[in-house]
Amino acid sequence: MDKRNKLKSKNVILIIMLISIAASIYYLNSQKAGFNPTEEISAIPNEIQAQNAEVSEKVQVSGYIPDENAVNRKKSLYQQAPELTGIAGYINTNADIKIYNLKGKVVLVDFWTYTCINCIRTFPYLKSWHEKYAHDGLVIIGVHTPEFEFEKKYENVKSAVEKYGLKYAVVQDNDYATWRAYKNRYWPHKYLIDIDGFVRYDHIGEGAYAETERVIKELLSEKMEREGNVNPLVVVDEDVEAVGVEFGKVGTPEIYFGYGFARGNFGNEQGLPPEEIVDYKLPEEIKSNYAYLGGTWKINNDDSELISDEGKIILPYSAKVLNIVAGSEQGSEIEVFVDNEPLNKENKGSDMKLNDPTKINDFKLYNLIDFEYGTYTVQINIKGKGFKINTFTFG
User: Fold this and answer.
1) Which of 19, 171, 189, 388 could cross-link to 111 by cystine, CB 3.0-4.6 Å?
2) Is the pTM of this model over 0.85?
């Protein structure tokens, strides 16, 4: 063999050795955690990544039985439910709760806030539906989106959940992220989501309870049919202890005391000047459905704060029930008079004391008066600087 052939043989052997070494390195690297051989070739197209992610997520949805024909039909009729987002706290649940992971269940999303009287009056129905239908696959998620700054505190929301006996999941939407995702504008607002994740029904405010329950049963029946369950939906009839309101007899609108929330119906001529301290005098003439302050108050974004040691609030109103949203970090006391008379057993609200001042500490809704529908004038005498009032609400 001449020198030229020997050189060729050596080159061939060297090439074979290099190929073997490269193959060994590739194999060893492929066994390392997180190694992706496709990265050595080219990036995976975005549409393929999205499809793979969707398939991966579907595998994770326990108990969900997809029906592609039903899903495709619904896509042209209904909106896909937005996901919970920007959640700051979890009560009766944890961070694993997601709309997507609840496919196969019927989900009721309820936007509320704990000082909203309209929300509070819907609780008996929500609790009833949770008791009757949770075992059939209904999941209620209360999305607590705060109206006032103090409603962002986790402990305040948790206390309200315990006070009203809410056993279903509650999440804190402090920055309005989920609120915006649903393009919501109201408390309360309920959305019903079917087993495929589509919004099938929504209702704003109180009322329509029978209609809402009918849709709940329809969506649960769809779930049972999808699962091949031929057993009829078992419904336990029960009386719901709810507060009835004759809205036609409520003649006074909700009245706010913060400059950022004011809607009018404030009687003092000085108005509610932002971030100013005002010495309010009660005028001789008091107009119906207008609130008046007496004493020295600081006007904040979402409340008026008593600066003097004593103060007064007067309001001629038309309703059955009168509430305030208020609180006092330093601790204050109030006495309530109706038409210049102290409260009695017939008209006393559930949060008021008879013959003694009522202490105001926690920031929440206080029920001052509960009587008959009619026109009255309420006067609230306050002792203790630091008392803050956000709003009057009625029923």
Assistant:
1) 189
2) no
